[in-house]
Amino acid sequence: MKVHRRLVLKGTLALSAIAAWPRLLLAARPDSAFSANDADKAIADLFGQTPLDSDQVKMKIPDIAENGAVVPVTVSTDLENVESISIVVVNNPTPLAAVFLLTPRSIPSVSVRIKMGQTSQVRALVNAGGNLYSTSKDVKVTIGGCGG
Amino acid sequence: MGKPIKIRAKVKGDISEVKALMPHDMESGLRRDAETNELIPAHYITELVAEHNGEIVMTAYWGPAVSRNPYVSFSFTGGVAGDTIKIHWEDNQGDSSTTEAVLK
After folding, report:
1. Does the ipTM surpass 0.85?
2. Which residues of chain B does A94 touch, with a Cβ-Cβ cutoff of 8 Å?
3. Does domain A2-141 bear CATH number 3.40.30.10?
4. B-chain residues within 8 Å CB-CB of A84?
5. What's the CA gap between B44 and B24, in Å, rounded?
6. What pTM did the predictor assign?
7. CATH number where B85 lies
8. pLDDT tens track of chain A, all 148 residues?
């Protein structure tokens, strides 16, 4: 009986571990996080946890973007077991810009160009080993690239 | 059908670097037509999948805040010259595009 109970307990623990796994690992676009109009809401929706500031997350982005329609960003990290890299532009109408899902064969570094409607903090998030790390930078935009 | 993707994939040692440029309007849905003042409908790439010899090496989910004619670069290990790189995207209006390139 004891053994049986232990087995049941083990099974329950395994199940809850799966449930707590970041939603990101699901093979579908996280539409609700992309439509969230608040950065913290988008991050909470995507990861279900609050990021820890880490100097191991590195973001290369200009301090001043002359053209907000094309802002080059590179996010990289020294962290191991990187599952995803995400980019959030806090003052954009829908802050979540991009999510990159990596694999064990990936080098944890991605580059992309993003639009910024106005001067904003930009956050880079790295999901590694089940934890969420981030770094932020304020980017000044002289010509916005979102609205009309 | 979406336009073909321009792919440059180079291997250096054990690291393969892929650079891709995909012609696409990436309309945010927030811009207005200058003449009619009507909102231009959102039209943007939502999902991008990159494969090396049939194995997924990167998946990206995007919102409308990725710039027009998106550029992306990423790297992975385990590729050798002559291997196949395939990139596929889908957008919010049901368009898609797939392009294959050879790792050099």
Report:
1. yes
2. 63-65
3. no
4. none
5. 7
6. 0.87
7. 2.60.40.10
8. 455 655 555 555 555 444 444 444 556 899 999 999 999 999 999 999 899 999 999 999 999 998 999 999 999 999 999 999 999 999 999 999 999 999 999 999 999 999 999 999 999 999 999 899 999 999 999 876 655 4
